[in-house]
Amino acid sequence: xxxxxxWFSPTILTSILLLQACAPSLPTTKNNSLPLPPSFPDxxxxxxxxxxxxxxxxxxxxxxxxxxxxxxxxxxxQELHLMEQEVLIANNEIMSRxxxxxxxxxxxxxxxxxxIERFSSEEANSPTKFGNAGFSMNWEIDIWKKLRNASxxxxxxxxxxxxxxxxxxxxxxxxxxxxxxxxxxxxxxLNIVDSYIEVLSQIRDMVTLxxxxxxVTSLAVRRFEAEVFKNKSRxxxxxxxxxxxxxxxxxxxxxxPQQVKRESLTFAEQKxxxxxxxxxxxxxxMRPDIKKASYDLEAAKLNVDVARARFYPSLSIDGxxxxxxxxSKHFDNPVTTSFYGVAAGLSAPILNRKAIKADYFSANxxxxxxxxxxxxxxxxxxxxxxxxxxxxxxxxxxxxxKVKQVTAxxxxxxxxxxxxxxxxxxxxxxxxxxxxxxxxQIELIDIKKEQLTAxxxxxxxxxxxxxxxEEKFESNY
Length: 477
Known about the structure:
The protein is α+β, with helices and mostly antiparallel strands. It contains ten helices and four strands, in the order ααααββααααββαα.
């Protein structure tokens, strides 16, 4: 009977551990059910073979001054360097997770003196000096892949940080380009205002002469003077915007305020090659933010498996070996002996199951969050491309009409000036014609800037801008 109990007791214990290890069912789950549309609306040249996003940024931009600024920013931007450290930290986490499923060895030594039985005679119990040295080992056998899944999850998170850095690069490249074009637009608007002030000053002088000849009243002179003063103040406002825009570029380049080299006179000729739009499925491999969301989702799934494995029994092996030395008055010479021991243990959580259950449910909730974030990222990416395609189309139409408006107003200025000198039109008509021409030219420059920035934003939305970046990351996985 005693023999049966010796066999039966470990069986009962193992059964209890296995029953205790059953993981509870998850209260909420969600499956990925958000397919991408087959094509972008209004995209006439969608192709599975090629897309503008595959161009390196230095092939997409043709302005040498701009490419030089972008290259400097990619080397010196502080936020980008901060993100690099996040990548390295994530890589270190892989190393830490891998160390969890490898045997842990420790080397140690200790020594001391011991005397017990306080009321015994001095000769009967003398102090004993002892010392030992050796190593110990502990190894959790990863029978449920808990530790390996945790390591793989850390690796996926590391890949996600690389994609996050690439996404930061795409945004940095786009922001520098858009700010550069804004700076060129401001330069050209300032030149137009300067020219307008000069023309108004000439007309004011002419009106002053006409007043002397009693052909106009002082009202005409004062109106033109007021227009000159208004545009001089506008000039200072533009100069301030230029300073702010320059310093924004300098900040992105990681340097203190200084002059930004640029070719403002070529602004009107700035253009991009024809944009080739990919099918929406290409976004999955082109956009770093979508790839990051995908890695985060895979990591979250593994974290659920890791949390589930904590309910299961864990098997560990412990061992120790070394030498021990002790000496007292009862021995003629110090005694040195070796020791060793090996043990295996099987354990499962019982009292702390609520804490493990809470972590398990939280891991599942984070997995669902990651899935929703992935879907949201897809929707945002698709929407960005759609918006930019339509925006470029409408801006092209607006620009063509605005060019016609500027041409018509330029002709009207020549006619009004001729008629004004011949006293055939009132000064108000001449003034309003000049003003309308100025506003139309300013708006034309704004539309040109919006065309350029819309193309840049489409390039970024398609997933372009990070290729060609030098990356020197080596995974510890």
